[in-house]
From TrEMBL:
Species assigned in the record: Christiangramia antarctica
Annotated signal peptide: none
Keyword Transmembrane helix listed: yes
Transmembrane residue ranges: 37-54, 61-83, 133-153, 159-177
Keywords noted in UniProt: Membrane, Transmembrane, Transmembrane helix
InterPro entries in alphabetical order: PAP2/HPO, PAP2/HPO_sf
PANTHER family: AT30094P, SPHINGOSINE-1-PHOSPHATE PHOSPHOHYDROLASE
Upper classification of the organism: Bacteria, Pseudomonadati, Bacteroidota, Flavobacteriia, Flavobacteriales
Domain annotation Phosphatidic acid phosphatase type 2/haloperoxidase: ranges: 60-174
Protein name as annotated: Phosphatase PAP2 family protein
Amino acid sequence: MLEQIKQWDRDLFIFLNNLGIEQYDSFWIFVTNPRHWIPLYLIFFALFFVAFHWKKGLYAMISLLITVFATWGFTNLVKSFFVRARPNNNPSLKELIRILQEPVNYSFFSGHSSTSFAATTFLVLVLAHKFKWIYLAYLWPIIFVLSRIYVGVHYPSDVIVGMIVGITMAFLFFQLYKKFEDRIVR
């Protein structure tokens, strides 16, 4: 059964990766770089201060950063345990896929996926009662993680598991955020 799932994952990756159009390569390479999203991160932080007084805004911002860094650390721990090669490093796939990036670290599960979904979910949990449109923020991680398949560095399962882990971590850290909110923000 596990071999069948791996085969489906591989086949789906090849199919999705090959949907790429050369004219859009530069867009996806740009999108997949976390540094290019810094203005969005700053907007996320600013929303905390628009929604709350400075002390609670600062508390929310620091809590978001803790959520993201804890998720990133957990992701790297899991990657070092599973040591799954990225599709771009799989010799049997080289001739079948489009490779636009060539990282050499491990694939399972996607750090882009886990951290972006953790950040967005935490943001939504904190701000949903203030801004009904905040759910639109999910457009960012969706585009961000699709880029990982497009550039040839993650299987769909890497992205899906990363998404689940990120959302789960956000809910866990949101519970801690709520638990300590009254003690820290007076």
